[in-house]
Design a protein that fits this description.
about 475 residues; five-stranded antiparallel sheet; 14 helices; single chain; Uridine Diphospho-n-acetylenolpyruvylglucosamine Reductase, domain 3; Phenylalanyl-tRNA Synthetase, Chain B, domain 3; six-stranded mixed sheet; 3 domains; alpha+beta; Rossmann fold
């Protein structure tokens, strides 16, 4: 046993010299085996072992006796002991979780509290080869892909599983040979949970009627899936970073052209990675969610969206694909009076505007400079302002006779919806004279009769 577990630990780099290891010990055969095997391996790899026991508050007196048993064993072995009583059923009901999910969440929270108090380290749990087989069958029955069929990992974050290559028969033999006393959780013998039904009913049926070595078969399957999943995961993250244009806490923007060049398998993984980045987990997101987003992104229509879980929205916008946390943020109106003959700084637009008014004969006009625009100053009505758009805004673009809705101009110019409120507009008290970065107004153009010229030059870090 020791040799086999040590091989697993070294192959998957589970424990390093001087690691702090919090061992989850229920008192049952699996966790007692894990504890004693790690004590044996401690002679090869120095580690600090801490015993942690959770009393789930379900089995009454028997659970209290389990806790006391693990406490006494820890004391006899000279190991630090930590225990905690939890209301698993109450927590499950309050948070709309299954009993298994609630117990798992509370256990790991407790284990991490211990880790934090001892200066960090790893959590060792006693999942074995049979548990792995049960996990694969559970996931297969409810529907999963390669990532689900890899089962439990040897190492995930701060959690390690040194017994994942050990079968339940090997554990029973080890406990018997070492004369290790263990506690029996009678609920494990009752088909009241899905996992128990698989352990007590489905696997024995498969062994009897189809494959007597189903545990070994599923163990091999999980390892094959781990290899494939690991490759695809690494490759999809590489592609993700190649096609992501913007990444922050609430929004991921992908390059549509580069995204659509990928195989559908990679598209789905890039979307999963995007959700993971802004949501922190993929819990609750199904293959259907991911597939719907892929279909949305493959549709060549801009402005469509899908509402997902946790306020997350997927939408298209011209050459961009967006996954973001929905935000009901009230639009902030900006309106600043321009300083004629001077410079005006507008922090919200990250913009500075410099204005000059001179007789036309004193101006050397360069219409090719996109950062400077010229207007007939005598046509300006009242004061000049820089603002963002208002509902119903219209203006007369240079070269046109009639008014055009600003919304239609932005559509023609393929300005994403989420950017439109950030486009500075220069206006007098009657009309928009310049949509900065795009078009000037026909109404204020320089003509043969122009006497005085208004020049507006802008400086900023805003990328049009």
């Amino acid at each position: 046993m020791k040799t086999k577990v040590l091989k697993t630990i070294r192959e998957y780099n589970l424990i390093e010299d001087k690691d702090n290891i919090v061992v989850g010990v229920s008192g049952g055969p699996d966790s007692m085996t894990l504890l004693y095997v790690l004590l044996d391996i401690k002679k090869e790899i120095h580690m600090n072992i801490y015993v942690a026991h959770v009393n789930h508050g379900v089995r009454g007196k028997e659970a209290d006796e389990d806790e006391e048993y693990v406490r006494k064993i820890s004391k006899s072995l000279g190991l630090p002991f930590y225990s905690k009583r939890i209301d698993m059923e109450g927590y499950a009901k309050e948070n709309k979780l299954s009993s298994e999910e609630a117990g798992r969440k509370l256990r790991y929270e407790f284990f991490r509290e211990i880790l934090s108090s001892v200066g960090g380290g790893k959590i060792a749990v006693a999942h074995n080869k049979n548990d792995q087989a049960e996990t694969l069958l559970m996931r297969f029955l409810r529907g999963t892909g390669i990532d689900g069929l890899k089962g439990m990992e040897y190492k995930k974050g701060d959690i390690i599983r040194p017994l994942l290559d050990i079968s339940r028969k090997e554990i029973e033999a080890y406990v018997s040979e070492r004369h290790i006393q263990t506690r029996l959780d009678k609920t494990n013998l009752e088909p009241i949970y899905n996992r128990n039904k698989i352990r007590l009913e489905l696997i024995p049926y498969i062994e009897k009627n189809f494959n007597p070595n189903i545990i070994e078969t599923l163990s091999r399957t999980s390892k094959v899936m781990m290899l494939d999943s690991s490759f695809l995961e690494d490759y999809s993250w590489k592609i993700y970073y190649e096609i992501v244009k913007v990444q922050n806490e609430s929004s991921i923007i992908l390059d549509k052209g580069l995204f659509l060049k990928q195989d559908k398998s990679i598209m789905q993984r890039v979307i999963r990675n995007s959700i993971l980045k802004i949501n922190g987990s993929l819990q609750g997101f199904t293959e259907r969610h991911i597939s719907d987003i892929v279909n949305l992104f493959k549709d060549n229509t801009t402005g469509k969206s899908i509402d997902l879980l946790n306020g997350i929205v997927a939408k298209t916008s011209y050459d961009r694909l967006i996954i973001e946390k929905g935000q009901n943020v009230e639009k902030k109106s900006l309106n600043y009076k321009l300083n004629i003959g001077g410079t005006t700084n507008i922090e919200e637009f990250n913009l500075s505007l410099e204005t000059t008014v001179l007789p036309i004969e004193k101006f050397k006009i360069n219409f090719n400079n996109r950062f400077i625009k010229y207007f007939d100053y005598d046509k300006i009505e009242g004061n000049l302002f820089v603002r963002n758009r208002l509902k119903g805004d219209k203006f007369v673009p240079f070269g046109m006779k009639g008014k055009k809705k600003l919304k239609d101009l932005f559509i023609d110019e393929k300005v994403p919806k989420e950017d439109r409120d950030t486009i500075p507009l220069i206006a007098d008290e009657e009309n928009i004279i310049w949509v900065v970065g795009f078009r000037t107004s026909e109404l204020y153009k320089i003509t043969a009769s122009t006497k005085n010229v208004l020049a507006i030059k802008y400086y900023n870090n805003y990328i049009i």
